[in-house]
Amino acid sequence: MRSLLYTTSLILSLAMAWSCQQEPELIVHESSYIPPLYTQLEYRDTGQIDYSAQEFRLSLPFIGDTYNYGWYDGPVTTAEGPAMQINIAHDTNWFVTYLFGFRFWADSEEESLWTAGHLKNMFEPGRVFLFGKGAGRVDISFAHEGRITHVDQRSRASYLEEPEGQLQIVSTEDYSYLHPIEGQVEGLLVHCSFEGKLGLYDPALTPVTEHFKTDAALTLKNGTAAFLVTYE
Amino acid sequence: MKQLTALLLLLLGSVPVVAQSFSAGLSPRLMAPIVTDATIGQGWGAAVWSRIELDDGKGLALQLGWQEIRGYNSAVEILDTRVLPEGSISWLEETARLKRLQMWLIDLSFGQQAWNENSPLTLEAGMRYSFGVTGTGNYQFRNIYSIGGATTVSRRGLGEEVLRGHDLGIRIAGYYKLQERLSLEAEAYQGFLNQWESFEGFAGPTTYVTTFSIGLALRLYQTKSL
Fold first, then answer.
1. Does the residue B15 lie in any domain?
2. Does residue B9 form part of some domain?
3. How distant is the Cα of A60 from the closest Cα of chain B, in angstroms?
4. Which of A3, A7, A8 should be substituted to probe chain B, the one whose Cβ sees the most B Cβ atoms within 10 Å?
5. Phi and psi for A215 in degrees, rounded to 5?
């Protein structure tokens, strides 16, 4: 019994000495997370010799000089069939300014659209989407310097009489994030590269863009992007 | 609690077989916890206890008590910023500062009279389980969701969000008999569990319960020669 008392006393003394270590008055833990969404490219306007670089990247607002861009994805119904639209926009309390976009048309034979299985099949690594409208194609839209207004004045690949260019899927991965209101959101993160030409939209010619066609082209090169498509 | 009740009944049930005597009483206590930065805090406590005296001055003791200890100044601030793919931003700020701990406790100890059976000094060593541990201090949780979203701010006491809620440790105690029904008691306790919840992804603050106490043990009931 006495040895029990001595042993307990020894353990108690050691434990007390160990637990009396000094602690900082305040432990601060800071973390931030920005999803790996971006689009970057080089473009050349008509009459321009050198290419200009453009990058859109999600960022923290009010920190640094970078703008806050939002990535918006969702299915749209078009005259050419169902498509998945990804838009990059600058969103303020008053205006949404569209800056860049991908519109991917689903393959015509697809039935269960925008499910995980469908999206993984549609964006299979190595697959090539030709620029243009319709099943299996992609239309790229871009508002370059001087055309960034609150009215959507993006140039589009489909504005060219003969769309020219392609987008290739490099890799995909499952991606999820915790939305504070909607809860866990799951989707497919798609990495791609693209190059080609966009029909240069000129609002002076017509304010209606629906059937707009042009020969004037904005040339894109070294385009890469990572975008998210959420599962239905 | 069911296991503890069963243990208590078992102990009481075994009294007629092995015990020389059974006693029960009450102990008010003044606490001296070792708090943040190894300084001494304040507190108080009270317990009801029962003892079974075996032969050779040995015994078993069981007690149920409550205590409050204060003087802590341990704090954590968590800042989490997330930019979500649709461009919205979520800021989370959580600040907690622990000032005081309150808890229920149950002890099971072995006792031994010092030197011989007539000694006025009894020493005890045993285990303590503390439960219902609550903290008071400052706690604030702010979650701001920008771009057409919601802003939520809440202020409430320290709760299970950041505190563990229980403790397990060892104690030693000494009882010096002043009168037939009155003893002076002194106790030291060391808890082994950090009273802060473990924080995911970073080392948070640590607060281990370390207490010294002095008190009076009033014997209210005793049976002899069972």
1. no
2. no
3. 7
4. A8
5. -100, -15
